[in-house]
Amino acid sequence: MRGHINNSEIRMFLLFGFMLLPMAVLCYQQELSLSIITSLPLFLILVMMLVTANIDIPVSSIKTKKVQSLDRDALILEELFSVPLVKELSYSSKQAFNTVVSLNLGGFIIPFFVLIFLIVFQADFVGIELMLIMMLAVIFLSDFRNGIGVVVPDFIGILAIPFALIFSPDNLASVIFISGIGGILLGSMVTLLMVDREKKGSALIDVGGVGTFKAIYVTAILASLVSWFL
Fold it and tell me: What predicted TM-score, i.e. pTM, was given to this entire model?
């Protein structure tokens, strides 16, 4: 994610990596699945999402405001979000960022294709309907932070669980995945489109990466583990 990994980022990867160890056993025992996605493909998806979490694919470039307070807060934000903010500030002009918008491979592209696969081959419209609810929740609860991009609460995917339990208990795991991850991706993109570029900005906006990857991966983990109870 933006080619910068500090101690907090390493701890995050270690935490998720340790979580995958018992999940590997459960997948070997064929205990976890996402509807038509069986245990082995599911485990490979989770591994690939984590391994490629630091790979960004640039798709666009826009002009955004370089807020002066970033020079003061750069070191703190760099430590909190694991972004090379000091370096990025040195490359930009005094008043504006030539902002690169990129898609994160592990946090956007891979889960997006899994999402589409489930929607097409499962044909459960409850997940799509709940996705809209999750999208609204993300729009209201997320924020665009100068120098970072869109920041989504790490555990927002939990909101999808009670809704899925009420409206689609038979397809619980896949509906949590579709509504949770789809809502996070759509909500973060809508939040990005609503940003006033004359007042806020960042050198790089990483959709599915910095600020959103943890929320997406936690949701994927939750959806996978919930399938054990079905």
Answer: 0.91
